[in-house]
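Q: Protein A?
A:
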Amino acid sequence: MTIGYQTVCSHCGEHLKVCVNCRFYDESAYHECREAVEEHILDKKRANFCPSFMINQNDGQASKANSNKEEAIKRLKALFNEE
């Protein structure tokens, strides 16, 4: 299946070619992208024309990493009594 600018999810109707669905999306990277992108895309959940887009097929591994990150931050704040 080719994912273009206007491709939408058959279940929810949301656009698929968005930064948060891309394998290069990384909140900790410059412009939140591991690719050398020229233009900073502000709305990561909105369809865009990025030529580097590749669908993320890691079955939720990114959400697990974010969950682990949030847990680590929570523990650090508890350690320093910053809750």
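Q: Protein B?
A:
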Amino acid sequence: MTVLWHTWVQAFPAFVGGVRVTLELTGVSLLIALVLGFLLALARLSGVGVLRGAATGVVEVIRSIPTLILLFTAYYSLPQIGITVSGFVAAVGTLGIFYATLYGEIFRGAILAVDRGQREAAQALGLSPVTSLRTVILPQAFLRILPPATNQLSNLIKDTSLVFTIGLADLMFQAYNAGASNFRYFDMFILAGVLYFACYLILSKLLARWEMNVQRQRA
């Protein structure tokens, strides 16, 4: 145990930098996923058949392709057609788009779960579709969104480890490098796992507290 603790202490400074990169990737990817996911949800709920079909096609195709293939396509294949992006942009773009398809389904399900009578009441009051969505539907759908959205955040944090394959100095990258330098891979990967868990635990607790505050305000 003493040797393990000493090894962790030596590697910890580099791991802190890896945690920072991991959190940056998570935050930017999540923002992209939420915005694009909301747009995809609206498109799939649209009364315009072409728009609804296109959005459905995008969701089905993106969800069926492994995230690693999407990442490699963005980072290694796009330069072949003259589009060069940094590793960070390729990573947040890939994760953001992939998780947009998942969050889009969460948003769509939450909106559909709102009682139909609420929509009819909004129409009876003469509210426009946009105003009805903003003031009636979304506030009621919001609390249905938070639990599954938090679960997807856990998956997003874990999937940031894939960026190690394109050389980004995230937490997984630092764990592998530390293991390569001291030949204690098991110890380094255990430390990485502990830090991934800590990141998720902190973020999930913050979201849970936010959800409780929202519920109190609406009570």
